Amino acid sequence: MVTSNSAAETDAAVVDQTFANQVLDWFDQHGRHDLPWQQPRSLYRVWLAEVMLQQTQVATVIPYYQNFLEKFPDHTRLARASLDEVLNLWAGLGYYSRARNLHKAAVQIQQQHNGRFPEQFDEVLSLPGIGRSTAGAILAQALGQRHAILDGNVRRVLSRYFEIDGWVGKKPVENALWEKAEACTPDTRCADYTQAMMDLGATVCRRSAPDCPQCPLRQGCRAHRNQRVGELPTPRPKKTLPVKTVRMLLLVNPEGELLLEKRPPTGIWGGLWSFPELVLESDVAQTCEKRWGYQVEAIEDQPGFRHTFSHYHLDITPCRVQLLPTTTAIHEHSEQRWCNLDNYRQCALATPIADILQRNL
Ligand code: SF4
Q1: Which atom of ligand 1 is nearest to the CA of 157?
Q2: Phi then psi for 249, rounded to 5 degrees?
Q3: Over the stretch 148-165, which tens digit does the pLDDT of each residue have?
Q4: What pTM value is reported for the model?
Q5: CATH of 243-360, one of 3.90.79.10, 3.40.190.10, 1.10.1020.10, 3.40.50.2300
Q6: N or C end of the chain: which has fewer CB within 10 A?
């Protein structure tokens, strides 16, 4: 249920202007002014930052952002790159659909916008991987256009300030938050306001242990007044994630190299390199013989571990398989390659796969 307490809002315009002024005054003194995407704030630089920040914290993003910009300083250079190159720079940052969409969007800008980054909200929104909040953040920060944003940080601040109950995954709750986000966004200094709200959520109105005594909004904050800060925002209802299992084959040739295969372009770790997989119950030696014509010398299951995705747990059992010298005839191709200490960094790898590889090379 949404309880925005709108009846108690005597004069929305005054409240909202006060809200923005308090946030902006705080930003001038305490906000972050030297993030790499703030100087200069171009459409491309802000877009790249916003996409990287969608699921990842600032401190983690910064080195990836700088590497990425060095290699692809503008969207034209990004569009000309192969997806492999893009994924390689993204490796370790997770949520790889972001990288695939970024690349797809750069190509789309070349093809549908004559190589110019669009400046209209609907056009930006139609690019792959860009939702309403990200489109607003890009245009507000790069061009100073007035658009509301509602990322995780802003949701937290608004749900507490206006004491909005209910999980944001429910449409009425999301709508109520958007309404407040729109109402609070000022007509001027939109770039600063957008950054200010993100900063306030990240550094003061934190998920745990928010620093209410230092918050510029504490006087009007309903959750603070009613001692409900710890309850808001309402968490996602708990659900038990399903568990899947997989055996990953670490096929080792006589040179000590490990075989990697490229994953399909969509789905988990789409387009990244990984180990061949088979179900736990399968016969390893028989599979090697059937699938690749490999003769097996020794098989050793290694300790398993769990990797959790947003919608399921994956229990991974790495299985090291030493191949007989007769397998030297195994050919590489665009979807399959032998990896050693010299060349494995050229492959885009998800973190768990990189960890297994490093332990076994
Ligand atoms: S007073 Fe506390 S709960 Fe309210 S907005 Fe500020 S930090 Fe968040």
Answers
A1: 5
A2: -90, 120
A3: 999 999 999 999 999 999
A4: 0.84
A5: 3.90.79.10
A6: N
